[in-house]
Structures are given as C-alpha cells and as structure tokens.
C-alpha cells in the first residue's frame, strides 16, 4: 500500500464530486421529465487510457455499460481537444437506442490528454415504429435512429449535418435538442472540474490517485470475493417468452469462485431470439457488476477496479450477448432483471445469508400513445410499475417498490391525469402476492387505468408465467397479470402485447410479488421487519 | 422587551432584547428533555419583565417525528388509493443495498381507510362521500383507536368540499383531523398526503406541549418559530404543526443572515458545524427557501429554509477501512462517551481528538475550562490510527500528528462537498459569498474550508451558540399559502390577479390577526411555472409580463429559456410577511488595533505546512478594532477560531471576527 490513506479518501471525494456535479448540471438543464424527474441517466469520469475512475449512477443498468461506450469511441475516433462524441448503437457501445451517450475528451491547455467525461441519458423518443421507442420489435432497425460513434462536436464546432439528421428522425425534436444540449453541458462541467482539480493538486498527483482509487476498489472487490467459498455455483431461470413466439427463453449462469477472483459464465443460455428481449454484452456486464457491488455492501467508488477481478463469459449470438441486428429494446429493461435473478440464485448457494429471494423480476413497461383531445395533439406516455421485493434472510421483502436494475419514480396520479386523457382507478398494494416463508416476499402492485379516448397500449412485462423464486424453502411470489376490462368484461392479456383500445376501456396491471425466504413454518412474527397490522 | 427561546440537546438558550437600549442579554438553562417546557418556564421566570413577547423554537414536533413517538394516526383517502403512503414514489433509498428499507410510513396499512368519492382534474365530482359510509368510517376509526386522522382525497385542492364533508363527520365524532386541502392545497397526491400525515402525527403532541405553556404564560404574546424562517402565533401553530418541524435550524439561519447583514454582507454561506452533524445554508439577503425537503425520509412540501445536513462533526469517528482508506464518520462518539480526550471511555479517535493533538485547542480551557481534556489519550488513539493507516510521519511531525492532520483533511473534504451542494448545485458560485461559521466545532475548520473553496472572507459572529434563539427573536411573521391552478401560460394577468385576490386577502388578514400593524404587512405573490411537459416548477414573482420573467429565470437557472414553448402555471403562491422591527445591535467604539491585552500564551500548533508557533487569544478580552495575523488561535466562549498563516482577523464593532483568508 504505497498510497497515502488520507489522500486516497480525499481524492475519492474529489473525483466523486466531479461526477456528481455533472449529474446536477444534466438534471437541471435537461428538458424531459424522464431525465429531470425520473433521473434515468448516469455520469462518469475516465482516465486518459479510458478506465472509469468515478461514476454517479442512479440507474444500475448503466454500471457496466459506460466503459464499453468509451472503448467504442476510442476505437472508432481520433480525439482532439474540443471534440464530443455521440453514440447509441447497442452493438457499438450502447445498450438500447433511447440511451444516448456523449463522450468528451479532456485535455490540459498544452494539449495533454488527461481523461474523459461521459454521460448517458434515456431519451423519451428516438423514433422507430412506436412512440416512446420501446416497441415490440423484431429487429433493431424498427426501434429508432441508430447512431454509431460519431463526432457531434469537432474542435468546438457542432456537426450541424449530424444534428439535423438526428432530429429529423425523432418524434419530439425540440425536447431531444434540449436534452442533448444538457448532456453537452454536463460533460463540459466534468471537463472544467477535472482541469480545476489538476490545477489545484497537479497532474502527477491526480493521475497517481486515479490509479490508487482503481486499486482500492479492486482490493475491496477482491476481499468480498475471498469471503465466498471456492466452488462452482449454477442457476437457471426463464423469461416467459420473447413476445413473438411463446417459447420460454433460458438464462443460465455458472459462477466459479477461485480465491479472490470470479468467473461468471452464461454459456448454455438460449440463442438470441426473434423478439426484443435480447441483451447486448454491456447489459450482462451491468447486471453482473451490480450484483457484486451490492454484495460488497460498502460505499466504494464505482470504477474499473471493481470490474478487474470478475471475468464475464457470454457466448456471442446468445440472448445475453446478441448480434446485430437483433431487437434489443426489452433486453435493457427485462432481460437485465432476469440476468440479475440467475446471478443471485447462484450466489445464494455461496453466501445464503446475504442474498435475497427473487424480486418481481420485471419493470412492467407500459407505453400509451394516442390523441389528446383536450390539447388536440398526439401524446406518448411511458411508465414502469413497481412490484414486490424478494424476502431477505432475516427480513421481509418490501412491498410495491422498484428492484435491482431500475429505481425510477412513479408519475403522481394527479400529474398523470392533468397531462393525459386517462383516469387512474386504483393504485394499491397487491396483498398476498408476495411468496410465503419465514420471511415473506414483498407484495406487488395493482394499477388500473381507464382510457378517456382511443389509444394504443403496449405492455412489455415479464414473470407472467414463471414466478419469482423463493429461497431456502420460501414460496415463489405470485406471477403478474395484464387484464383488459371492456364493458365490464374482464379478459387476460398477454405479458407482451400491443392493444388498440377505446374510450372507457380499462387496463389493469397486477405486478408480481417477491419470493419468500425460509420455510413458512419458521415464521416468527416478532422477527419480521414489516408490521402487517 | 422580546425574548427568543431555543431548546437544544444540552441547554435551552434565552436571548433578551431591550428595544429601547438596544441591549442584548443571553443566558442558558439546562434542558429538561423529559418535559422541555420546564426549562422554558424556568428560564422565563428569571426574566424580570413578565410581559415580554416570547418567540420559541420548539423541537417537540421534530423529536416526536424522528423518534416515531407521535400520535396513533389513521389515514383516509379516495377509494382505490389506500396504500398511497406505502407505495410513496415506488423507489428504494439505496440502490446497492439489498437490506435497506424505506422509512416506515407513519400510518401502518391496518389504519388506512378509503372513502368512495372521486373528483376529476376539472374539479368535477364523479362520486361524492355518502353519509352512511362516513358513519361506517367513524366506527372503523374508533375501533382502530385513532388519536389523529390525516385526510387526503385526490384533487381535493380543486374541490375541497369533499374533504370538508368528511372532516365534519369525523370532527363531529370527536376526531382530531388534518385535511390536505387545509394543510397543503397543492397537486401531487403522495407529497400532499405525506405532509398531511406528518401534521396529523405530531399535532396532538405539539398541542399538549403548547397548551401547557400557554396556560402557564396566561395570555402573553407567545409565538412559535416555523421552518420557513418566520414566526406564527402559538394557537395557529397548533393547527399547522408540520410548519414547526425544522424550526431550530431555521432560527440559526435567520440569526446568521441578520448578523451577516449587520456586518455588511448580504450573500453568506451559513456553516453550522456541531458535534454530530453540520448544517449548511445559503442566503442572498434572505435565506433560500425550498419546498422539496424531507425529514426522516418523509417528504414535507411546505416552504422551509433550504438547509443541507451532513452527518459529520467534531464527534465523528475516524477509522481505516478494509481497502486502506482513512474514513471519518458517519459514526459519531456523540457527547457520551464523547471523544477520547473527554476521558469518559471513548477509545476511537474523533475530529476533536485530532484538533487536540494538533495543538489547535487549549486542553485546559475547553468549554471555558469546565472540562479538562486528556491529551495523552487522544495522542495514543491517533497514533494507533496512523499505524492502521500505514502512514509515514511527515517531516518533523509525529505519527499521531500526521494522522490527526489526515483526519482534519478528510473531514474538510466532506464539508467542502457539502458547501458545494448548497452553492454550486443550486447554481451559485461560492466565491461570491462570505463564509459565516457559527457552530461550536466550525471555527477550527472555517479558514481552511474557505481557502479550499476559493472564498476570501470568513465571518465568525459573536455569541454564536445563541444565534438560533437570536434568530427567533428577530424573525418576521411569515405566512405561506399555495393553490394549484394548472392554467395555460398565456392566462391574462388580471385573471390571475382575481384568483390571487382571496389568498392575498386571507394572508393580509391573518397576518394582522397575528398582531402585526397593517403598515408592516407586505404580501408577495408568486407563480410556480414550467414548460409544458416538465415535472419541475420554477417559482417567479407575479408581475404583468410574468411569462417573460419565467423564460428569463429558466435561462438563468438552467441555461436555456425558450419564449416559443408552451408554459403552464402550476401553483399560485402567496407569502404574507409582517416585518419585525429590525433591532439595531449596539455597536461599540472601535478602539486601537492592538490585540495584546487578550494574548494568553504562545504554543506550538500543527498546520498543514508543519509546526508553527502561534499566539492564543482570549476572544472575550479582544476589543473592537483589534487585528490579529495568523497563525493564531482565538478562543471564544462558543467556539475556537484557527487562523492559518497570514489569515488576517479583525474584530468589528459588534465583536464579530471578520477574517480575510490568505488565498495561498
């Protein structure tokens, strides 16, 4: 340990606050609610060789994806001072098309490269076959405009041709332009702050502590892995289907722990499929890093060091490492959750006391598009609905909450009704949906929305067929349901579906409960964490 | 005469202002946590003027909420939404912790009830509360043994009649009811419900407490400090308990702003570093107010002074983590056992121990000499920390001193980040502000922090520990009103004026009813606006061309404003202010600049650059006009101020210490 323990801690704060302040600029200057309120974005700082030094992430699914964005940019482009690169191509540094990443190289006044600032934000629409760009697609080209790594700004000059081309391919160009400008401003802030930091501490010391912090996070991650008994831990689970055929899609993992290193091998997972639930490699990395990061249970910098001791094998052409031009809109939101589930299922064998049972395992994506008669204009609305958290060893799972790869806020009922021609009829805890056990899985949610005018409703949801598993003898959580109510008649709708509905029709989504933990006979009311009086 | 009374953990502070002589007097009484009113009455009994007006900051509601010792509360809402408080915004508080839980709602699911009724966004009733159902509801509430009821119906701010019907039925049945349209008639049902639930939860507790004091004070002018920095009459506070929740810290900020202005500074960063936590605030002539605060993880959407709190202070414990980084906090030694140097059994080094080891505190004079500090023990603990952190003694320093410097650097890194949050993240450049340090532990860190942030001046007010009570005493009467309207951004100004009228009238009348002469009442009108589609509102003053004001404000705050984009008016806000006559604090004659009459001794002090000889001064003996150049230490009754090399301090006419910080 050649580095100073004090400086290590001080630089930890310094680099983290650079990433934090980038996030503040992005949130404040962005235009769309998705970024401002739901905070669906991440900001990161990289060293000159492209290794991530600090990340401010609100959304775990961005964890492993940012480094790949940077690598794709470095491979594709020659950077000079004043450049900014843009990309969203899932097969070249992106994850799904709505997530647009901007990368800015940072130089000292004499032209020495000292690092990169990057941020990724979820745009509410990037074109494609349906409003909101989360369609039930069969190939990438249907999902929106594809941006390979390109220079959006070159030597300080915006590439107007690229800018115009992008905005011509989206449904809400003004909002997109505002959000992109916010992303530029965030990177600008990151660059400015890193330069100020170097002016205060010197390039040599700053670089030295970038390295030291990577080594620090790596040490902490290795220490965690060391606490797991050596061995090979396997688990498999299924996505209900790909939205096109009714065949289940298998995700299979083998985690091998060897001393302070782990190999995570997804060999044996299903081949990439016809629908949109394919995940690119970046998503599989994100889910893996998330799980290990959460197991560490300590506040350490999210940087490349956390990733060093973990090797991820995902066969190309499989559902966890899809090849172009497979559709990927749902891989980011649904498959990422199942990858997390199988990783936890495997690791529960290694450290049963630290791993919760399966949570709802879906984000229950609902997109509603139509004509707003009150405003006489088209609208597109996107939401994700919470569900049950898996029971934890020693604790019940929380009810009605977002789990694992997402954590976006809901839209208040009153805000929703002000903005769109809907009426929310129910938003409640779906009692009894959590799996029974010594500790009970959290309950899911009932959400019932009445349409006040004709609309197209797309639901992209999972765990309608295969329930979230319990652990240590706990029962699985209840599966979710999508129900349509027309003229008082209820009918069950598929998990992934596009519906054309009319005024007065009602969509009811019942989200899955979390799995239980431990045999229900062992339940001791005094030791359960949630009062259920 | 006016009296400000602030209850702290250890002491209850009293500040007395005689308006005629402009004299200020302060004293402290030991707090009585089992019944805080006892210390208040005990202190008041010591004041000869038995008719003086009293302004009081009560922590009773705050503690009831934080300790979850409030009333047994029930929640009533629109059918279909009884789980509103549980679902909250459906997010978890820590994304990387499987075992983290959201704060428990104040009302458990078993005491949440529904009423069949519905109002649309147009304010049209689709279903109205039915008498027989209300009878069932009151029976259910009785059976649930509810002591207090929070009522929040959807869109109640558009059609308060439904809530009023329910309130009548419940109050007739003897229930204490907080109704959302009365507490916060503003859209976003979860935040409104949460604010209302907090009110219902603490109201009975605050009621009992204030009732007891009112009885004892027999009709004296008795006012309560609110979280928005203004005061209201005690009986008003009882119906709006939620508005008093953050009154203590608010008093401190108001006091700091006042002292800053008296010293000639409008723009100040308030830095209140205590034993376990630090409050940072920002003022641009007036304290900044936010409607997005949380307490104990629960949102309250009433206007409160914007204070950012971090869990580090003088008692924060330093440790070395598994990866070899030296961490400070969030664990704190508190006052029991306290830092190692207290000799009460604490064995893990704190920030205070580090300062002792660095020679920055005179151990025999700590707290005015009331407590002798054990330097040897503190040194041992820091030496051990240095070994664990594998530190190499720097230059001529010992291992313990090297570790102590490290602890100070790390805690300063926390503080610097906190100041950046309240300034940079809110769109302000800290270098435009004066660093106003008024917490007990802050004086030792203020100059170094200001230096790190590029701020060139530090102000350390005299009598800092009673600043909160002083703030209460000078606080204006402030009453806030809001109403959600959701109107297009091209609504004619005179239409808005008309909608404003009843709120303005009510604000003025209620402020006059507070006992403020009409001539001292001003009513401010503001609009919460946004571009259509946005989810955040900006508050702008209401003027004829209010839309232009909005575009301008948006441009200033967010870097872009677009006059062609459709705008919405979300809320109307009215703030009625009954100004309290600003006391001129007596200024003493400026005397010579020689500080030698206060010089105590010369000691060795460790600064970042190494060990230096520094003069220690008795702050109480310094006369206005005295000038001191660092390195030096000024020991005041409330705090100890460290001047680094070439930091230049001057004592002003009110005995505040103003420091020009050496930038290098």
Please explain how this structure is put together.
The complex is a heterodimer of chains A (533) and B (664). Chain A is α+β, with helices and mostly antiparallel strands. Chain A folds into two domains: 214 residues, no CATH class; 178 residues, no CATH class. Chain A is built from ten helices and 20 strands. In chain A, the strands form four sheets. A seven-stranded antiparallel beta sheet of chain A has the order 2-1-5-4-3-6-7, sandwiched between helices. In chain A, strands 14-15-20-17-18 form a five-stranded antiparallel beta sheet, covered by helices on one side. In chain A, strand 4 and strand 5 form a beta hairpin. In chain A, helix 6 packs across helix 7. Chain A starts with a helix and ends in a 23-residue tail after the last strand. Chain B is α+β, with helices and mostly antiparallel strands and 664 residues long. Chain B folds into three domains: 143 residues, Rossmann fold, CATH 3.40.50; 276 residues, no CATH class; 102 residues, Dna Ligase, domain 1. Chain B has 16 helices and 34 strands. In chain B, the strands form nine sheets. In chain B, strands 19-14-13-22-23-34-33-30 form an eight-stranded mixed beta sheet, sandwiched between helices. A six-stranded mixed beta sheet of chain B has the order 3-2-1-4-11-12. In chain B, strand 1 and strand 2 form a beta hairpin. The chains are: A alpha+beta (533), B alpha+beta (664). Chains A and B meet through helix 1, helix 5, helix 6, helix 7 and helix 10 of A and helix 3, helix 7, strand 21 and helix 12 of B.
